[in-house]
Fold this sequence. Notes:
This protein has 588 residues and is of the alpha+beta class.
Amino acid sequence: MGAENKTDEEKQNGDGTLFDLNDYTIIKEGDAEILMHAKNEVFYNKTQVNNRDMSIAVLRTFISQRKQEHEAMLARRRTKAGNKVPDAKAEIPDDSVQHNGESKDGSEVLEDTSHNESCSKPEEETKNLWGKGREELKPPRVLEALSASGLRALRYAREVEGISQVVALDNDKASVEACRRNIKFNGSVACSKVESHLADARVYMLTHPKEFDVVDLDPYGAPSVFLDSAVQSVADGGMLMCTATDMAVLCGGNGEVCHSKYGSYPLRGKYCHEMALRILLASIESHANRYKRYIVPVLSVQMDFYVRVFVRIYTSASDMKSTPLKLSYVYQCTGCDSFHLQPVGRTVSKNNSVRYLPGFGPAISQECSDCGKKFNMGGPIWSAPIHDQEWVAAILADVKSMKDRYPAYERISAVLTTVSEELPDIPLFLSLHNLCATLKCTSPSAVIFRSAVINAGYRISGTHVNPLGLKTDAPMDVIWDIMRCWIKNHPVKAQPSDQAGSVILAKEPVLQANFSRAVASLSKAQAKKVARFLPNPERHWGPKLRAGRQITSKHVSLLGPKALNGINNHENGDGSNHEDDEEPAAKQ
Length: 588
């Protein structure tokens, strides 16, 4: 496999120069293999196998859904035409129109985007995807904007059927050389589908507008500098996959930095990881709106040390006006766990017309009605659904049907199972342990608490972000009434009167909670004892060093002593394991 051998230990780079296989480690993931140099010249993180597997699962479902939507659009056209063959000149773009929206003579082809689109399946999404002279959907093109070793691009090309081309970009010469070397190493399929370019991803995406059906952003850190060009590079109805690993910023560690990068202020609550997802979605929507485009999230997950969102992008000046309805500010009480959302906009319907107006406010008084403390304000965040449950069900079914094709099957199936059981229309969540910590009481079991909420007439579910998180449409006064009823049967010690818990317990409950076991208190996955939250498969499972940094003994907490020994052995040229040196290297 790979390049033609010159000797048993020599192969060719993508540019024809020779390299020694002894200097590299072969890493296999899925159907792809890459050559990694021991000196950390090109970034690679084994932990991201979860990210890559999830992306492949979503990409497979996207290709299937895209085909179904195209067929449905053709069926509607045929029905509208009275089952007559449509006029070729009226229905099919001219042969001179290419995929990138330019004619053969180089002149720009203007697209009509004035008519409205449906939020789920707009008819314009297939406008750019006709084949030449036929009602045929072109195979999707994928752009991996920050490729590094090219592993992700190679896996897309080798494992996802129906992809015509994968373009891998990087602004680092060593990474592009490594990517081209790995493309050649992976044989003819990779060579025919994957191409690597040395380019600034922002410039490349700006100069290739609406050319790619899928754009994948997986930067080292914040994706904010790439979003403006990325939303322009995705074709109508296409998919943008975006990762953010700067969780300290997104989760409230540096609120002012988050506001400068994403345009939202984070809050430090138990829900901070879900808020990070919603801040990222709001930022993508903001960039898309500048070009009369909007997003429809199909899956948004928080895994390991990052967040990952999958959104479809459409063009419609009229549908774009609904963006303020999907954004909200968050008020978080500083004394208890109460939080409230303030929508940015609202609509008023009159005589078959819709007016867009500012949201009513303030949503709350300056002091918390439960404990009397002040509020912190954060946002705006994306408060509309962050998943499409039909997509999630289709992705999960595909993953289960091809479990042998996913190296991280156990982890991604567990995440998708939990996501499929979330309440899709409830932003953020409560932590049962935090509620009990505020009141200084023993915690009821999750089943008992969920039963009380259900018996009160409200919905409740878990969340994939936190095993202890609970999403519910019950207002905070109902939640505190349930906890007051619980404490009547499980008394607590007296606390100072100025504490939030004492103020809450001083009030009598209006609702008398019913703690009898409800049928829906356990989700289907819980009832079947399906694993939903798995431990890390090995130690040092997390972020890795940026490419190019010299690995030293101070990085033992990130990489582990074995990785350090491997580096030292390679530098010494002996290639041995030196198991006896592991402890001294760790203590160095």
